[in-house]
Design a protein that fits this description.
Elements (H helix, E strand, L loop, with lengths): L4 E6 L10 H15 L3 E7 L6 H4 L2 E2 L6 E5 L2 E12 L4 E7 L21 H19 L5 E5 L5 H7 L12 E6 L12 H4 L18 H11 L2 E4 L6 H10 L2 E3 L8 H18 L1
Parallel strand pairs: 1-2, 1-7, 2-6, 7-8, 8-9, 9-10
Antiparallel strand pairs: 3-5, 4-5, 5-6
Length: about 270
């Protein structure tokens, strides 16, 4: 039997960034799921602060020459890859120096906050899906972690709904406690529009914020995972009111089996109705 495929989309993964609840979960989880017998791929942004030489990143030549039009401007989409040792687990990086400038993470070098979190989020989410499509690697489950991945569920259900690569793909969205409230431009909803995406589909981010992005991710996901023990009260109410299946919080050591079981349950639904 062919292995089931799980695509992990995360805004942070250690050791490429400092250890946080999110980054450490996204290091441990894919390895655990791979060891449970599934085929995996991992994507994250190539922030400018990530040391390419130390982490042995290199460009994926067969994916070179990709571009993306965002807000009527054409941007190069560069894909790099590194291998997490000793398990030889590949991590793909979405790179563009306009959106992920050298030596930076979430702020300018002088400490000023970026004023383009909206566009870099759109670029990252679309970039992941366009890259997966070009790889020809059809995921059975896409598991998103962090607000910078929050557009992926919506794009999968709308812009990529008829793409055979994503046929019957199930989407899981993990919600984490917000460590910072970044400024998101209110123009984000317009910029996020794409063929298949209407204004009504993105109205939750018409007044954009990190919380609004989480809500959009929840709206289009098939299941929700509580990545943190506690989340914002308003966000928690939105999760409850959504009526979606919710998996409670598990720490890194205890999360592998329940997460893997959730993926299997979602895929059993596909098998029943397909």
């Amino acid at each position: 039997m062919e292995k089931k495929r799980v695509l992990f989309v995360s805004q942070e993964i250690t050791p490429y960034l400092s250890e946080t609840e999110l980054s450490s979960k996204c290091r441990a989880l894919p390895q655990g799921i791979m060891e449970m017998g599934k085929d995996i791929r991992i994507f994250m942004p190539k922030y400018g602060c990530i040391n390419e030489r130390r982490n042995q990143l290199h460009e994926v030549i067969r994916l070179s020459g990709m571009n993306m039009i965002l807000d009527n401007l054409d941007y190069p989409l560069i894909i790099k890859v590194a291998s997490l040792q000793p398990v030889r687990m590949q991590v793909y990086f979405i790179e563009n120096e306009d959106y992920f400038p050298k030596k930076t993470f979430m702020q300018e070098i002088d400490g000023e906050e970026f004023d383009f979190h909206d566009e870099r989020t759109i670029f990252f989410c679309r970039g992941v899906l366009e890259t997966v499509r070009k790889l020809g690697w059809a995921p059975d489950v896409v598991h998103c972690h962090g607000w910078m991945s929050a557009l992926v569920p919506m794009y999968l259900k709308k812009a990529f709904a008829d793409d055979p690569i994503f046929d019957n793909t199930k989407v899981v969205y993990s919600v984490y406690e917000q460590e910072s409230e970044y400024e998101i431009n209110d123009d984000m909803a317009r910029k996020a529009l794409l063929n298949g995406v209407e204004e009504e589909d993105v109205k939750l981010i018409s007044s954009a914020s990190v919380g609004a992005l989480h809500k959009l991710g929840i709206q289009y996901a098939d299941a929700i995972i509580m990545g943190s023990e506690g989340v914002d009260e308003d966000l928690n109410k939105f999760i409850v009111d959504s009526g979606k299946y919710v998996l409670s919080h598990h720490d890194n050591e205890a999360c592998i089996e329940p997460y893997n079981n959730l993926y299997d349950e979602l895929l059993e639904e596909v098998d029943v109705y397909s």
